[in-house]
TrEMBL record:
Residues 210-256 are annotated as: Disordered. This is Uncharacterized protein. Gene3D superfamilies: Ankyrin repeat-containing domain. Residues 240-251 have a biased composition (Low complexity). It comes from the Eukaryota. SUPFAM superfamilies: Ankyrin repeat.
Length: 300
């Protein structure tokens, strides 16, 4: 009678945890389905200890890992949830972060965001991830200062692409810049044909609780002519409410804040190409953007 051959799936889960913490290999859970399931649903303390030990091994070999710190390193892993982070901070092995250290937001937190423009799809809310997790990071005293424009403003760009307006408001309130990567978030909003999103990105004092998640319907209006070009009518001036950073006249009125990003001719050209007529009018009449000759020919 042949002897029974023992394999990893025959070992107790406690011993598998010890092997996992000793190996510190991200490939180990992929060796078999059983091991993957055991390690995926391991206690948060095991995940926390794995991330701490893995970070200690990384800083011994990489100056980048030393500069970014434990929280930035841990956030890169899908197992790093709110409960796992709290377990990390409770661990006696958790190092204290230097005062100058910043937390980098990984792209994985925002990569899954996609538009919800189809009929029947639910609108984005404050309870949709990653918004609750971001609030937890900002509210936790052990999390170092967060670099909100990590990876060239990837978070804001992806939120605009998805039309995730609660997340956009949150990121802007924390200092996210629409100027990142050549004002890519504004370009994405233009392609969505969403004037409220464009105004939210540009104007610091813009508040509109009725911003829609989907693209706005087209307005059938000619782009050419004096009105579209921002030419004042004979009897008066343009009385629109946008754009200027100058103070408002009259006592008790609030001084308008400066825009986050300046509207340029490339943005106007993109709006014309997308046939976003309300955005074209906004850029020209309220922001005073003058089209170049190529854009004028496209409008005629």
């Amino acid at each position: 009678m042949s002897e029974r051959v023992l394999a990893l799936h025959h070992l107790p889960v406690e011993l598998l945890y010890e092997i996992h913490l000793f190996a510190l290999s991200p490939a180990l859970p992929l060796t078999c389905k059983h091991l993957h399931a055991v390690l995926k649903f391991a206690p948060t303390t095991i995940h926390a200890e794995y991330l701490i030990r893995s970070h200690q091994a990384a800083i011994a070999q990489s100056a980048e890992a030393r500069a970014r710190g434990l929280v930035s390193y841990a956030l890169r892993f899908p197992i790093c949830s709110r409960n796992v982070l709290e377990a990390i901070f409770r661990s006696p092995e958790c190092p204290s972060a230097p005062p100058h250290q910043a937390t980098v937001l990984p792209r994985r937190l925002f990569r899954h965001l996609a538009p919800r423009d189809e009929p029947g799809q639910p609108h984005w809310t404050d309870d949709d991830e990653p918004l609750p997790f971001l609030r937890f990071l900002y509210d936790h005293p052990r999390v170092p200062r967060i670099f909100i424009d990590s990876y060239d403003g990837y978070a804001l760009t992806r939120a605009v692409y998805a039309g995730f307006t609660p997340l956009i408001r949150f990121l802007l309130s924390k200092g996210a810049s629409p100027e990142c990567k050549g004002s890519l978030p504004v370009t994405v909003a233009i392609r969505r044909k969403s004037l409220p999103l464009v105004r939210m990105l540009i104007e610091r004092d813009y508040h509109d609780s009725a911003v829609a998640d989907g693209p706005r319907p087209k307005k059938r209006r000619r782009l050419g002519g004096g009105a579209a070009l921002g030419i004042e009518s004979k009897g008066g001036r343009d009385t629109s409410s946008g754009g200027s950073a100058s103070p408002l006249s009259g006592s008790g009125k609030r001084r308008k804040l400066g825009d986050r990003v300046a509207v340029n001719s490339d943005m106007l050209k993109m709006a014309v190409k997308c046939d976003a007529r309300d955005i074209v009018e906004y850029f020209m009449k309220e922001k005073g953007c003058v089209p170049d000759m190529q854009t004028v020919l496209m409008m005629s």
